[in-house]
Give the backbone structure.
Amino acid sequence: MKNSGIKTEKREFQVRTDLALEQRECVPGDGGEIAGVSLREWTGEQSLVKLSEVRILDGRGAEAMGKPQGTYLTLEAPQLAKRGEECQEAVSRELAIQIQRLSASLLKHHRTGREGNEAEAGIRILAVGLGNHLVTPDSLGPETIGNLQMTRHLESQMGPGFCSERGLPVLSGIVPGVMAQTGMETAEILKGIIRETRPQLVIAIDALAARSIRRLGTTIQLTDTGIHPGSGVGNHRHSLTEESLGVPVLAIGVPTVVGAAAIVHDTVNTMIQALADSRETRGMGEFVRDMGPEEQYSLIRELLEPEFGSLYVTPPDIDQTIKQLGDTISQGIHGAFFPSVFSEAPGCKGADSVI
């Protein structure tokens, strides 16, 4: 790369993504396998949903993936983009199954020694809607919280045991906002709330960043490792994990933005071929082709970011997408912890429906 006019210093290759499945796709493995990482794929009970489970088993896997050790479960439903009720209900049902499974596992292994294979009645849950409700691509968390049926207040109004006697969770929710609005880290706010309300499980809902456009609004990730707000777009905030909060954290996220550099990077092969096919640019095409993936991505960022900054792209119908996803995820949470939720009319909301 001598005399090319392009900076050549070594950089860490990092395409911005919060999805463990995409991170695994980026990491070269030996024969398709990565040491310390397992991958399982299957079709869910709802046939419209494809599931992929990436498990980071040890330190080797964590280093290779750049993510904490734990389970990352991805639900993919491309037909969600068409906004059909059948697909939305199928995703909600499958989401409920997986939320219940991961929640039971988290509670079973929590240091309090709780046991059980199913989400139990009367469990105290704090739902946290992360993000900025004023910025549409970042408003998934607040939108979901607005659709949830809260029940914790019924314990004080109707007496202790009201929820457990009816097979209901003791569910409360909070939208803590973002640091620019509150002047506080989300983790600081949640520690105070957890100290007062003593939940047994925190469910954190957040918008994510992906590297592939096709996964925007059609992919849901669940993980038992907690959440790291803003990490997908390079805005690192204090982590929300069992270690930091003292309570198991189940994270639910959907990618709503993708970096412009990642979009270009995914189409670089087409660009290389076009350059190589032209006599005027053939040398440039061969030059880029000989670069490794890390160098290609660094070149793209160097070309884009001085002009546009760290640009992120979101679909034009993101407002409708967020509303649908907020409803889908809330119904998945209802299905995991509320009895017979899918036998009732959709959109069941409000405390009156549980009395």
Notes: Residues 76 and 219 are 5 Å apart (CA to CA).
